[in-house]
Amino acid sequence: MRMLLRLLAPLIGLAMAAAGVLIVIEVIAAWLRRNVVTGLVVPWHHWRTAIENVTWEDPPVPGIAIAVAVLGLLLVLVGLLARRSHITLDGPAPEITVVTAPRVLARLIGRRVRSTEDIFSASVTVSPRKVSVLAQAFDEARPELRDTVHGRVDEMLDELPLHRRPRVAVHLQERQGPR
Amino acid sequence: MTTPVTHGSKSGRPKIPEATLRKRARAALARSAAVDRALAVLVGLVLLAAGTLVALLSYGVFGTGRAARPVLDPLIVDGLRAQPDAFRLVSIAVGVLLVIVGLTWAARSLRPERHPDLVLDGGPDTAIVISSSAAADAVAAQAGGIPGVRRARARMVGTDEVPALRVTLWLADDADIRDVLTRLDDEVLAAARTSLGLTALPVAVRLELDVSAHPPRVA
Lengths: 179, 219
What we know:
Keywords (chain A): Membrane, Transmembrane, Transmembrane helix
Distance between the termini of chain A: 42 Å
Number of strands of chain A: 5
Number of helices of chain B: 7
Order of helices and strands of chain B: EEHHHHHEEHEEHE
Helix content of chain A: 40-55%
Oligomer: heterodimer
CATH architecture of the largest domain in chain B: 2-Layer Sandwich
Largest sheet of chain A: 3 strands, mixed
Strand order of the largest sheet of chain B: 5-6-7
Organism (chain A): Pseudonocardia xinjiangensis
Protein name (chain A): DUF6286 domain-containing protein
Pfam family, one (chain A): DUF6286
Shape of chain B: elongated
Radius of gyration of chain B: 28 Å
Shape of chain A: elongated
Number of domains of chain A: 2
Radius of gyration of chain A: 29 Å
InterPro entries (chain A): DUF6286
Largest interface: A-B, 73 and 81 residues
CATH class of the largest domain in chain B: Alpha Beta
């Protein structure tokens, strides 16, 4: 989302500047050329004739309004969601800030969980507040396997100098078929 | 009452509070997108409000009579004609404001990030300049030698007055992260601070896993 914002920001800025330039040019041109009804760059007299004959309830107006509102909503979402998403770790000194991406933590935990006996595969989702592990166990797995996996994840988290320890949720699925 | 922890300087430079160092280190993590985000949200809210109000007007929420009026209302045209100079001046002011905000925003977004050189005090008539790339490359080379670190990249960021360091470490899967960070501080950053003559150097470290080295598929 930050990349999208980086792309959109200069485009919107340039569009705003271009609109401003056109407004200034047209207003000054209309001011100086009082007897001329045509626009210098923008055919605003055609537009004026058109919108004088269109009412608010006529077909293109609601559609355009909804499109503008949707565009605005998307911009708001891009602005709000373009936050840094990272896991903060405690640095060895106050002047050192250490972060890592959630996918890095997910990969470390996933590797640790998959190395557990009786676990066939695992998918891990990590956010700064929560770690969710969905592990597939071979059938006839031990009943305490869930606790074992939970312990492995806790062990992994203990090894990291996490600034804020996320909650851990482990879900086990039994895999059907031969081992 | 507690006093903030400060970092002293053997050269007698002013002490920098710990909170300031933390703030500078956090700021060095990535280029700030706060202005871009704020302006995007602001423009988005304006468009959302305008679009929603016009849609409500079109669907007759504010009265069917209003919805049946032309978009360019004769009442508004008459009002503008009554004060033509005021309308023109306001329009020009709005246009100039759009140009200033738009160009400032675009220029700020497109401007490359600063990588400040470090200026060391070599005496009354001498200034020793270490280029940002030289300083950063030296740190990266040393950091790359820490056990568990496969690759390292460093960049000087911040300003000439307040430089900071951004370090990215690509770790091996079995790296001991606590040990890597301790060694980075003790062996690399301490040496960098000493050799660059800096009292304190805010550092932002980003940890990644090195995925370029895959284990062999067939033993």
